[in-house]
Amino acid sequence: MKAEIISIGSEILRGQIIDTNANFIAQKLTKSGFEIEHLSAVGDNYKILLSLLKKAFNRSDLIITTGGLGPTEDDITYQTIAKTFNLKLIKYPEAEEHLKKFLNRIKIKISPSNLKQTYLPESSKIIINKYGTAPAMILEKNNKIICSLPGVPREMKKLVEEDLIPYLKEKFPPSVIKKSKILKITGLGESSVNELIRDYINKQTNFSFGIYANPEDIQVQINAHAPSEKEVNNLLENSADYLKNILGDYIYGYDEQSLEEVVGILMKSKKLKVAVAESCTGGMLGELITRIPGSSDYFQGGIISYNSKVKEDLLKIPEDIIKKYGEVSEQVARSMAENVRKCCHTDIGISITGIAGPGGATKQKKVGLVYMALANGKETLIQKHHLFRNRQVIRLRASLRALNMLRIYLLNN
Amino acid sequence: MKAEIISIGSEILRGQIIDTNANFIAQKLTKSGFEIEHLSAVGDNYKILLSLLKKAFNRSDLIITTGGLGPTEDDITYQTIAKTFNLKLIKYPEAEEHLKKFLNRIKIKISPSNLKQTYLPESSKIIINKYGTAPAMILEKNNKIICSLPGVPREMKKLVEEDLIPYLKEKFPPSVIKKSKILKITGLGESSVNELIRDYINKQTNFSFGIYANPEDIQVQINAHAPSEKEVNNLLENSADYLKNILGDYIYGYDEQSLEEVVGILMKSKKLKVAVAESCTGGMLGELITRIPGSSDYFQGGIISYNSKVKEDLLKIPEDIIKKYGEVSEQVARSMAENVRKCCHTDIGISITGIAGPGGATKQKKVGLVYMALANGKETLIQKHHLFRNRQVIRLRASLRALNMLRIYLLNN
Known about the structure:
Radius of gyration of chain A: 27 Å
Distance between the termini of chain A: 51 Å
CATH class of the largest domain in chain A: Alpha Beta
Number of strands of chain A: 17
Number of helices of chain A: 15
Strand content of chain A: 15-25%
Shape of chain A: elongated
Oligomer: homodimer
């Protein structure tokens, strides 16, 4: 089954917004077993949209449009779809009823332009949009399907998950179940991952694999298919287990898991508390940890010691240590971790001090040099990293390396 | 002049990556006066790409492709372009020379598959890619232009700015200069901005306007054109000045400026120093401030007082104040700002305490309730906000409101 996605909106063509809708829909349709051959974006332009819809109807089994369902003159999706198939636009009473209720709830008076949103191509199946005013629809025609969704990402996503995907599942009970599993890796580069798993990958015939390098991690995606959900799950689990044997703790998580989430789970299970002392990251490590709801169970807080005076006054690092070794040094990282642990009364203290650039480098200490430390009251672990790219990427990578240092510590203690 | 952009790569169609390249190129071409009618993404599929290239060549004056220039079998862009125009692929010696130098520098041996990257469609103008191995090219044919760029965003961006745009400027000296200016607004909602400037907008015939709502701000874009750079700059300045009179300090910046950058400029000019005390934002305010290179001139650091014990021990907030009013209260916000200012020896202390959710709410204090304070040693300003959406958006908005509170303070003091 071939699918294509058409994003409608002149702001996409002018580069004012990034079209994230197409990406979301592409992910969901791929998971549902469709093969996507075209993604297109066009403006609020009747002639161009009409021509594209005709082409799409010729070459694809499923067409998803997003955008152009609003109340203004620019919004021409339904009108153009109606023209494509020589259909009339007719009033859907359930659309009007929903619109009145929805606007009443947010205390807005209904205007004539709103009423435009109650007209859909005849013979289409309306999808009431609980999250906004624009109704979506599904139209079946010559064994092909066209589905129009609103362009507001939040509304579109809800309707895809709650309406479109269940509809497609019922319409096309899959003969083969396709599923993917993502292994998330940190601490190894793309080429090292590739080398470690290449032999295994090349031997597999039931699977396809992808390796993707991101600023924050390396991801290995395993794609499998089988006649049943159970079989495909088994295939994926076995393959993931095999790769886990090769890659070990370099794998920090799976699928949607973030590093901070994995660390949170470990912290909770170990019933430990942590505090942070941050210099060049300015609070980013604390920010990452507290993205997780319930992080107050294990995160106490910390000190942002951006200036050396704060290192001395709040973190009680002796001035002569800073003078002798410099703010970016193993010794200062060590003191930061040990002292923040003490003053926040936690089991673990973590610190980061480094040169994020573009300024601040010396002959001996280049931009990207970062020291981090983890203190537990008995011993203090130190890591030294040379990170690359720009200021914000260096800061992000430093924060993630520190989080990963905590993860590895928790796994081994 | 009509332009279109074709992104090539199966990972886009499967939704594995968001196509940000098309957005970047669309922005740049729009600024250069081109009208973009189609954005498309297709996979590494010869037949589909060939058909799309033929259509694109019929309907557009300028075609930009991105992706598919790598050394592997999948990378078929040049081969397909050559077929589209019945051209041969020929070896470009300068491509081979660059490839050898580039690989030598990063200590990688040249392989036969690399050599594929030295073949381009005959009669094309090669663009040596200083940032990677894949050369780009420009091909002129029947008064139309096709330009192929690599898919790696960093390489693509550099080649657009350093090669493509200068080439287009020389080829098409613009008869009309089009330019835009963006006004960045915080503290007002989209509909309030709309109401305030609607009358002015409707009266203008030389301009078009767009209003965009983001999680972090509202943006008003003014689009103008004139025969010369000077005239269009004048038009934009006058229009921006007029809107500045209406919107006042709700405008925090222009074009690429971020709120933290504007605050940084103000802090430097006032020669003041600031420290932060953060609860629900967990370090995000500090992280935002320190995104700016040179922020060490005005940012000293601060305390992440996620837990009430840290508020008591490090921020010296009396336990009975916390007990009496609760951690999320005007009184605690006040003490946090006043005390972080003292213990970091700064001119200004800023604090944030709130309920980011999803847990932590009570009958009286709902998710999204955030108090913030700004202390300068003489007085302490307090703000109370009710913020919406999810945990991370509430935290981002809280941090930005606090930054904006600092901006307004600096403007008035």
